[in-house]
Amino acid sequence: MILEYFMLFLLFLMLGLAIYAVETKDLLASVVAAGFVSLVASIVYLYLQAPDVAMTEAAIGAGLTTLIFIIAIRKTERYEK
Amino acid sequence: MRKWLAIIFLIVLGFFMAKITSSFPFGEEKWGVSRHYVDKGIEENRGSNLVTSIVVNYRGFDTLGEVTVLFLAATALAFLLSTCRCRRRYERREASLIVKTASETLYPLLILFGAYIFIHGHLTPGGGFQGGTVIASAVMLMLLAHFTFHPNHRALSTVEGLAGITFVLIGFAGLIWGGSFLANNIIPLGQWNRLFSAGVIPLIYVAVGFKVGSELSGLITDMIKTTKEE
């Protein structure tokens, strides 16, 4: 039961982070928040007994995608106008 | 106005999605093809990780398609970067000593971990795609910390091509000697839960791991090293 409440907390955390990622003007913070959404999603996948999907989400969603976006920000601008 | 229309559209879409997905039985009794996978999967493929057996063997053709899609995306990106008036730049600002030392320590460990993931794809969670991504992130760490580090592009594309050919050749070997494309009866299946088991599944996942790892590494190198001309 306590685990289910924890999962509910994680789901709302994902929602909050996703809204923050869309709304904030600092693109670096936005990318980091999007990476956190993926990280929390991988924990949820682990709870749903899908370790393969959780690994993919953690490696690609939280790791590689975040880094590629950071390269893009470094080559362009950090703040949204 | 447009914002509100988008919100209303999303609410309607979400409502119907929730309605459709709530009618699916979730985690209940399997039937049909999934029942066959659960009952006969280990017997037919001898792989401890049933997900890998499904992804690489039963649905191996789809995985080949996925690998092709990834290849196409990498090719398109390389084409885009080659057509813009960009140049390759190597000299950059140096990273701090802590970042450089830590990345040097982590680099071989990450490569080893990625290789471990795809070699044990048929035994533990994960496989070629995950292991390849871990290897690519190791290369990326080095690229970000050391601006003098540049992987051999020709070697990367050779490894990528050979790995892709290996996947297709294993499939054709199954077609010739096993009766169907990617058939898993051309080499002995071995004993369940051992490293050398599950027939061609580990071979295919090692090939996929090499392909994804070299492909993503090359792609990231292209992205970091190419800068638009001022």
Model description:
The complex is a heterodimer of chains A (81) and B (230). By secondary structure, chain A is mainly alpha-helical. Chain A has one domain. In chain A, helix 1 runs antiparallel to helix 2. The radius of gyration of chain A is 14 Å and the shape is flat. Chain B has 230 residues and is mainly α. Chain B has a domain of 147 residues. A two-stranded antiparallel ribbon of chain B has the order 1-2. In chain B, helix 2 crosses helix 3 and helix 3 packs across helix 4. Chain B starts with a helix and ends with a strand. Classes of the chains: A mainly alpha (81), B mainly alpha (230). At the A-B interface, helix 3 of A face helix 6 and helix 8 of B.
Task: Please render the helix and strand layout as text.
The complex is a heterodimer of chains A (81) and B (230).
Chain A: H1 2-23, H2 27-47, H3 51-75
Chain B: H1 2-22, H2 33-45, H3 50-58, H4 60-83, E1 86-88, H5 97-119, H6 128-145, H7 153-178, H8 201-225, E2 226-228
Antiparallel strand pairs in B: 1-2
Helix pairs in contact in B: 2-3, 3-4, 4-8, 5-6, 5-8, 6-8, 7-8
Average pLDDT of chain B works out at 83
Strand element count of chain A: 0
Classify the oligomer.
heterodimer
> Distance N terminus to C terminus of chain A?
45 Å
Q: From the alpha carbons, calculate the radius of gyration of chain A and give it in angstroms.
A: 14 Å
Counting H and I runs of at least 4 residues, what is the number of helices of chain B? 8
Biggest β-sheet of chain A, characterized?
none
Which ranges of chain A are low-confidence, i.e. pLDDT below 50, for 5 or more consecutive residues? none
Helix content of chain B: 55-70%
Largest beta sheet of chain B: what is the strand line-up? 1-2
Give the total of domains of chain A: 1
Largest sheet of chain B: 2 strands, antiparallel
Average pLDDT of chain A works out at 88
Q: Strand-residue fraction of chain B? A: under 5%
